[in-house]
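**Archive record**
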Amino acid sequence: MAIASNKQNFTELKDYVNFCEGFLDFVGNPRNIQAEIVSRNEPHYHFIQFKNTEFSISRPLNSKLLYTGKSVKSKLTQFHKVLGSVRTMYTQSNRELVNRAVYTMQQCIGASLDALPAGQSNTARKINGDLFERFIRLLLCRIGIECTSGVIHVPVKVDGKDEFFMSYQHDLIIKSGELVKIIGSVKTSSKDRLDKIFVDKFLLARLTGKDVPHVAIFLNDVQRKGKNPREYSVNATFLPGHFKGYTVKLNPLDGVYYFDIRPNMLTENILKDHIRTFDHFLFGDLWNLLDRQAVVAKIEPNENGN
């Protein structure tokens, strides 16, 4: 918990790997946890109850995606090999490996932060979100993509002249020099954030007169439901009606990607055409979007220079 609470402990990909291995070794020992609780409505989701003073309970963890301590070291070694040659290692097993490895590493951080005292829950969410954003940027840098987070200053023209600028903060700016190629939103969940992503794309297109690719990358959209641990279940936080409405009536995003994708995203009309697992972005859509026309914009790095 102390390691996960300090963002300075996660500056390189190896930091995420090392933490993941340590966390899974810890919870893999039954003496270190109070209990493992199975979700009542979707039993492949489990909750870890820790042996701290509050007997804190973790977020739901998808056992179909989460690697165990026994296999994680070999899987993460292979994960690094795939990132080193992502454009030539396009296999179904490697695609699944990337999704599961990233999910496992990030959820180890999130579950650790769940052990913080209840009064620090907002702090825990902020740290977890920041570390997920950084994780995705580090992953993309590892495969040779030039990316950052920061502010884009968009000129507003009146009678052909730049009269003033509007500034937009973005989690992910994929660029080539001063050319903005792709803008991305990276969040652990779409809860309370979906509207802004669609509106940002709409406004930027209206202001620049150009279609800048916008993508959204989410870890998952499930949360714990219930007050009695014996009756815990999971609840979806995704709003399909909002997503469909914005996609049809405002503008579709250029890609929406999940690591833990919900079943209705694979079957419902509109959702299944616009939402995919993250491997589709890394192995295919990313490179196609990079070939599209870019927009010239001034980029101001964030306060950490990342």
